[in-house]
Amino acid sequence: MASKDDRILLTRDRELARRGGAQAVYVVSEDVMEQVRQVAGLGLIEPGIRMSRCSLCNTRLRPATMREIQEARYAPRSTRGKEFSWCPACRKLYWMGSHGDHLEKRLKESLSP
Predict the structure, then answer these.
(1) Phi-psi region at 4: left, alpha or beta (left = phi > 0; alpha = psi -120 to 50)
(2) Of 86, 59, 56, nearest in space to 71 by CA
(3) Which long-range contacts does 42-47 make (Cβ < 8 Å, 24+ apart)?
């Protein structure tokens, strides 16, 4: 699948990584920040928090409509200054809140020399 989609397979399964050849990377550590450092060190990613794919189904997110935001019971009351994304498959609303801010800070701290 990774070859067909022109993607890289990241895995903690040593055998799967071996079978994947050039399309696969064996992720050494179980620690997520170490994993980010490894993959960034290979030049495969530019570390940062992005809202581009659904965390449930991996579908590409698109900008949410005002109706989708208003109908989501879990949306924040104030939408000022926030950008919202929508998963058309799961029908889930996403936005960068304090959790994203904390992750961004943790990422920066972890990658600092």
Answers:
(1) alpha
(2) 86
(3) 44/8, 47/107, 47/111
**2-34 residue pLDDT tens:** 888 888 999 999 999 999 999 999 999 999 889
Cβ burial of 61 (10 Å; 0-12, 13-18, 19+) is buried
3-state secondary structure the chain: CCCCCCCCEEECCHHHHHHHHHHEEECCCCCHHHHHHHHHHCCCCCCCCCCCECCCCCCECEECCHHHHHHCCCCCCCCCCCCEEEECCCCEEEECCHHHHHHHHHHHHHHCC
CB-based contact 93:68 (threshold 8 Å): yes
